[in-house]
Amino acid sequence: MCIYYKEIDAFTYTAGEHIFPAALGGIQKLPKEFVSTEFNNAISGIELDFIRNSFVSLARQVEGPGKRGKLADKFATKSTVSVIESAADKSILALGYFKKGKLYEIPGLLLNTDSGKFAISFDSTEVTDIAKAIADFKDKCSEAELLKIKIIDSELLLTNQILLGIDESVEMKFNCFFAKNPSATTTLSIEKIKAIGNALQYDGTEPQWKIYMPRSTGQIKFSVDFFRIYAKIAFNFLAFLKGQDFVLATAFDSVRNWIANGGENKFASLNKENFNPLKEMKIELPESCHHVLIYKIQNRLFATIHLYEALSVNIELDPNFSEKFSTDGFICDWKNRKEYKLFDYISEMYGI
Fold first, then answer.
1. CA 277, CA 303: separation in Å to the nearest integer?
2. For residue range 167-213, what is the model confidence (pLDDT) as tens digits?
3. Cα–Cα distance, 142 to 192 (Å, whole number)
4. What is the DSSP letter of 178?
5. Measured distance CA(16)–CA(40) in Å, rounded
6. 303 in helix, strand or coil?
7. Are 41 and 21 in contact (CB under 8 A)?
């Protein structure tokens, strides 16, 4: 029986649910029969939004891990494409993204729509043959009908400026990026992209390399539904710790239904002081790890979840929990691809 969709039996079970999301480096899974495919499909959109657009997206861009928790550089998490500007000359703009805390530029051009003048730019760490890079850009423009265009509004651009960038490797849904001032009425069509490509010529002039200062037009998103992902982590660990029958008890129906279906949040709150009881106990934790702690205060069962040892959330799992319960936790040392129950970690660290 699904621990989230408790009332219905006719579900499929195709994969084990991670305690911490795989995208954050989670390894340990619950037994396959604990969480249904139907629940995973229903919650996946919120979890993906959380991974890509909440504060954890910034942490992943700077530190990792990458796709499906992998650590190799080729799988490293990239930010979405945004407008960047030169540190020396703020009139020099381009399109770029962040990966592991570093800024990369995508092939693109800055066009003045009044004069028709443009400047084409590339990342010096990625391009060594300028003539070939321009020819490749022209080829992609000539096949504009194949491009998937994303519109980016940026106050860094004047109303008579646009940026056109093309890169297949940054965002899954888009390979062409069109940036303009929010108040500009300029539009982009297949014909215009092809015309831009036809106009590009390279006269062999030595390129001028610029240093860019990161300034993103993107914003970090916060949604109340993100609390449900924190709560799912806590509930997954409780199921791992105490078993399927334990978490199927009616005492957890309220928090279970909220995780699965949303609604009024009566369960989660920000840990505003970012209080970390493990650090208060002088337990040395792995760098930038994730951890969840479940504990009882009087007759209330709580969980506290830290991601990247940063913004943390408290979850009330049961306000009337009368059973005995011993505090326990789970640590995801994603940088070293290891996970521990709390007391196993303490035993290994301190030789107890």
1. 12
2. 998 888 899 999 999 999 888 999 999 999 988 887 777 776 666 65
3. 10
4. E
5. 10
6. strand
7. no
Q: Are 313 and 304 in contact (CB under 8 A)?
A: yes
How far is residue 1's CA from residue 8's CA, in Å, rounded to a whole number?
A: 8
DSSP state of 214: P
Dihedral sign, CA of 285, 302, 268, 28? positive
* Structural contact between residues 301 and 316, judged by C-beta atoms closer than 8 angstroms: yes
| Burial group, residue 328, by CB count within 10 angstroms (0-12, 13-18, 19+) | middle
Closest CA to 229 of 43, 69, 56, 55: 43
**CA dist., res. 93 & res. 97, Å (int):** 13
Give the separation between CA 268 and CA 317, rounded to whole angstroms. 9
- Hey, which residues does 188 pair with through a beta bridge? none
Size (the chain), residues: 352
pTM for the structure as a whole: 0.72
Q: Per the structure block, which two tokens stand in for 56?
A: 């954890």
Nearest to 290 by CA among 350, 345, 215: 345
Q: What are phi and psi of 44, to 5 degrees?
A: -60, -35
